[in-house]
Amino acid sequence: MGLPRPGRPAARRARPCHPVGPAWLRAFRAARSVLGRPFVADLDAVRERLAGPRTAVLGHSWGAHLALRYAIEHPERVSHLIYVSGTGIDPDRGWHPHYERNLRRRLGPHLNRWEALGTRTLTPAEERERAILQWSADFADPDAAMMHAEDMATPWLGINRDCNQAVNAEVKRELREADIAARCRALDLPVLIIDGPEDIRPRWGVDSLAKALPNCERVSLPGSGHLPWVENPHDFRRAVVTFLDATM
Questions:
Q1: With left for phi above 0 and alpha for psi between -120 and 50, is residue 137 left, alpha or beta?
Q2: Most CB within 10 Å of its CB: which of 62, 66, 92, 154?
Q3: Which terms in the Gene Ontology molecular function aspect does this entry carry (predicted)?
Q4: Could you tell me the CATH superfamily of domain 8-247?
């Protein structure tokens, strides 16, 4: 699922680069070729090929962490950082137990089926069903949640659990060992943090990041969960365009 095109004012100065295509998706599905790959280097290669010497970087969820890492390691190559629905930089990841409780609560009538599917080896169709149920919890509007989750699962590319586990382990290691907060305090570029207040990942988990960044704005988009551009596209677009226009 892609991000919306920027509004006209930003489009005059910025061209979005979406490094997601069949080859990229196949790479993510091939666990042995992905595990341990230098994702920051991959992102730098995309920038070099498509965006020139300096660009704005937007990342969502784990991609927000990757975008932050990239800005920390290559600040001279990043003009702006937009951090969407990330989970912050706290080494103890204190938000995660709250996320698990919120997930179960948001699943509501689907909880029993989701749990049942989690107790056995799944067929591809069942794996897709369980993913749709879980992803539906990422949306604030219960009437539209299943539709949005179905869209995310179409076409169905499967879930690379080995890659997911390796990426999560790497994030945990970085947060424990890399003193990300100190590096953020030295990051001299404009940053926009975008939250969906109905995200089941508690937004206070990002507070320490916002405090550490010396040039940071933060917006919360009403009526949205983990994917705010889906549920509140107008305000998402306005926030991004306003930020880029004000700081370019």
A1: alpha
A2: 66
A3: hydrolase activity
A4: Alpha/Beta hydrolase fold, catalytic domain (3.40.50.1820)
